[in-house]
């Protein structure tokens, strides 16, 4: 919401028109019995002050539509499910309804949905994505409603973005494996172009460094987010570093691949090598051999956080920048260490 | 948006009906003064050309809220993502907006959302679930708006439900494995309380019977939808039926377990044993060793179908009962047979 639009209230319109607030409201809502001259005076005042159409819209029905838009800008992803659940939790079942739009990584489609949402007079918009890297702000122009970016990050520092704390998540993995007495660490992760990949590595490496444990570059393998790469990268690691005793993987698919290669190379997990994944993707983690210990980003909590911040913005509060929500560790069997808080 | 939908424009409808575009628009929008004969000619042309939902959606301006509710009655499931995408495709990006509500298998929450949707005057509701078994109709009383059940089935025969054709999907699996020359079949599947489990087995068994291939009951293993069960059931099967050369699994998680056990028992897939899964869950099927051939329910298509039927009901057409949409086979490596249409 731009400052200008926010500044102009019905009180100001009424004052400028020299009428009561109730009369101004009736005029703007096109309700009640008013003389044409009065009505026109109110509209003139509204125009002069730049009392904008969306504000008019809000004023029509209790000033709000009690709807918000959830705009997934990337193609649909399972990440959206817990985000949506969290959003619903925080918005209060049924009190604020959620329009869901899937932009499918198509900027034209995204603009189209944005217009649709605005024409439906949503009270606010949550933008979700599948990457934590900065992206251009929605529409590229000031919008008449507040926007929160969730698991998505606006490049405009004036916008508000809520993200998982990937760096702290990387720390959790390191601390868990260190606590189990591991000393020879490796990391198999996604493409280095992902901010999440770099952040997780940063936290992982920092926690190891604090414990005096090195992580040379050759023990960090970047590649696609796929099981095959998890298998291949782990095989390469084992060839060059046969006494590796801890592998942190950037997601659970990579960890599944790592577990398979470790088992097939004769390593026992967690006795010989501890493995920690990232995402805590239920069926993958539970079906793994052994069941996979994994960092959980609490996406549902992230959805709730985004919704609470959006409601706060809708209330008129101002907030911008970046909010990082902590991750937690879901301890199963593969790490071999005790639970880390 | 499918090619079909994209192909047919109001210009073509007008040409086919032998009227001006303006007249065609009036007819389809139910506006203006037109002779009944003209109006009917336009509708006939629209039907012949398959001028479907998007156009109809546009035609309903001013008599509708242009919103529909998507009410997931079970707890959130990845099945909902393609269903939602299909719904969006058929509703026309932005023209009809979708309220998404997650009932989380809680009847009280479901009722609450239903009331919320009705108070927002949605034009119709799509109910989705995670089971194809009959469920009580929404609310249990006649509703003021049309409802379509998608991947969910109303026990009221007066309701309209659209489901994947699980029986035909089971047939596809059998035909694919038979075409590869398999003769000793087994089936590892989910709990028999699921209609989908029984339907897939029925189709699978029927296609085998037609080929003169038996499937005795002891070669059918029912259990939880989990990888562990896929592994354990396959190990049991191998113990009793060492020359099994074809395993059809009721979902991809079970198939992943079956592939692991087969490989670890020294069987080559597909050379010694062919395996077919069900769901065509991308990351699981692609990451499998070998990549998994799997029956695809085309959930996005199912969402489109549900949306088209809902728009038809909103138009005032009456339709009830059960629509079964065919499955298709995604052929990768594990089946070893040629593609089945």
List keywords for this structure.
3 domains, Rossmann fold, 6-stranded parallel β-sheet, disordered N terminus, 13 helices, 43% helix, 434 Repressor (Amino-terminal Domain), 341 residues, homodimer
Would you summarize the structure shown here?
With 341 residues, chain A is α/β, with parallel strands linked by helices. In chain A, 43% of the residues lie in helices and 17% in strands. The first copy, chain A, is elongated.
Fold and architecture overview:
Two copies of one chain form a homodimer. With 341 residues, chain A is an alpha/beta fold. Chain A folds into three domains: 3-60, 434 Repressor (Amino-terminal Domain) (Orthogonal Bundle); 67-164 and 300-325, Response regulator (Rossmann fold); 166-296, Rossmann fold, CATH 3.40.50.2300. The first copy, chain A, has helices at residues 3-7, 10-17, 21-29, 36-49, 53-60, 80-91, 107-119, 166-179, 195-210, 227-240, 252-264, 282-287, 299-314, and strands spanning 67-72, 97-102, 124-128, 134-135, 147-150, 153-154, 160-164, 185-189, 220-222, 246-249, 274-278, 293-296, 321-325, 328-330. In chain A, the strands form three sheets. Chain A has a six-stranded parallel β-sheet, with helices on both faces. In chain A, strands 9-8-10-11-12-14 form a six-stranded mixed β-sheet, with helices on both faces. In chain A, α2 (10-17) packs across α4 (36-49), α8 (166-179) packs parallel to α9 (195-210) and α10 (227-240) crosses α11 (252-264).
């Amino acid at each position: 919401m731009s400052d200008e639009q926010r500044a102009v209230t019905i009180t100001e319109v009424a004052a400028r028109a020299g009428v009561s607030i109730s009369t101004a409201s009736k005029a703007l809502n096109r309700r009640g019995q008013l003389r044409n001259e009065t009505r026109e005076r109110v509209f003139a005042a509204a125009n002069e002050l730049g009392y904008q159409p969306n504000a008019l819209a809000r004023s029509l029905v209790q000033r709000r539509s009690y709807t918000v838009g959830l705009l997934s800008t990337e193609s649909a992803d399972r990440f959206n499910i817990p985000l949506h659940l969290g959003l619903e939790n925080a918005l209060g079942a049924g009190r604020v309804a959620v329009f869901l739009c899937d932009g499918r990584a198509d900027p034209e489609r995204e603009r189209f949905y944005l217009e649709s949402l605005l024409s439906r007079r949503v009270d606010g918009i949550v933008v979700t994505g599948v990457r934590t890297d900065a992206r251009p702000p929605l529409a590229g122009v000031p919008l008449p409603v507040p926007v929160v970016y969730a698991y998505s990050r606006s490049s405009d520092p004036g916008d508000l973005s809520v993200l998982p704390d990937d760096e702290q998540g990387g720390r959790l993995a390191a601390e868990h494996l260190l606590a189990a007495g591991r000393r020879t660490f490796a990391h198999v992760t996604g493409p280095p172009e992902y901010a999440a990949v770099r952040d997780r590595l940063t936290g992982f490496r920092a926690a190891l460094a604090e414990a005096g444990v090195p992580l040379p570059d050759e023990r960090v393998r970047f590649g696609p987010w796929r099981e095959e790469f998890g298998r291949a990268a782990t095989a390469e690691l084992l060839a060059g570093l046969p006494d590796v005793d801890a592998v942190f993987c950037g997601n659970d698919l990579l960890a599944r691949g790592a577990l398979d290669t470790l088992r097939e190379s004769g390593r026992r997990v967690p006795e010989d090598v501890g493995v920690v994944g990232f995402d805590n993707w239920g069926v993958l983690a539970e079906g793994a051999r052994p069941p996979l210990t994994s960092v959980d980003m609490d996406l549902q909590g992230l959805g709730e956080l985004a919704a609470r911040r959006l409601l706060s913005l809708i209330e008129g509060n101002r907030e911008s920048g970046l909010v990082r929500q902590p991750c937690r560790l879901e301890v199963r069997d593969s790490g071999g260490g005790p639970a880390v808080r």
